[in-house]
């Protein structure tokens, strides 16, 4: 943990200096859109809350035994809050050949808008969520946070659903019928053999992959403040197991990720958990790209800390 410093009006990751998008290894896009929620409001405040609490995380990754930001630089984008601006904003950020885009939401309706700006061809979406999000419309809104998976499938992507434990009967029927859906419900994952099968499946992925994480996928004991919490859920170490298989064992090219549906709260437990997940994604991706064998010229080398 580092000492608090005077706040800068510009958003930063882990108090590290931003670089231009064209020079960044990691681009963090702030998507402050919460207009499609049906539960508790406040997801639009999550991006800045996650970045603020990231100041309290140590740079060192205790699992992978390295400090990723000694080797990588980051660009934190300007905040985008208009739904129609998400796709063009995403396209504008992509200026390098080897970059990872991580979008901080916002509600889950933003995911298809991001992928339309990021993915040039059908990909595999690894989708962690408590809800199926397969409705064509919800409460009269075709772009509700209950619809993103429907749009992703309509765009031609394949989906691996993980952790679902709240589902509408029409969604259940579609899951059984749609060959582009692989389903690993939360109750199924209580079975060690099914959990092992999922991790083995993740390790076989090839081609372009996008990772979408609704924070209500996790047990509310770990992430209590989300828009529509559900009993049950994933834990932190299962998420890191997924990251290990996806980033270090598969032949997939992970182009982007998002973390959505968090509502900042006073205890900061929820945003701290989310910031740690963000850090792990960065760390595992960096390892997968071989950054630890490069010169230490990353953002951490430009700051003084103790």
What does it look like?
The protein has 306 residues and is α/β, with parallel strands linked by helices. It has a single domain (21-302), classed as 3-Layer(aba) Sandwich (Arginase, Chain A), CATH 3.40.800. The chain is built from eight helices and eight strands. It has an eight-stranded parallel β-sheet, sandwiched between helices. It is globular. Residues 1-9 have low confidence and may be disordered.
Properties at a glance:
single chain; 306 residues; alpha/beta; Arginase, Chain A; eight-stranded parallel sheet; 8 strands; 16% strand; disordered N terminus
Structural class per helix/strand content?
Answer: alpha/beta
Distance between the termini: 8 Å
Q: What are the secondary-structure elements, in order, as H or E?
A: EHEHEHEHEHEHEHEH
Q: How many individual domains?
A: 1
Fraction in helix = 25-40%
Q: Report the total helices.
A: 8
**How much strand content do the residues show?**
15-25%
Give me the CATH superfamily. Answer: Ureohydrolase domain
Radius of gyration: 18 Å
**Unreliable runs:** 1-9
Main sheet characteristics? 8 strands, parallel
**DSSP E strands, number:** 8
**Looking across the biggest beta sheet, what order are the strands in?**
2-1-3-8-7-4-5-6
* CATH architecture grouping: 3-Layer(aba) Sandwich
Text of the CATH class: Alpha Beta
Mean pLDDT: 93
Describe the structure concisely.
This protein is an alpha/beta fold and 306 residues long. The chain contains eight helices and eight strands. The model is unreliable at 1-9 (pLDDT under 50).
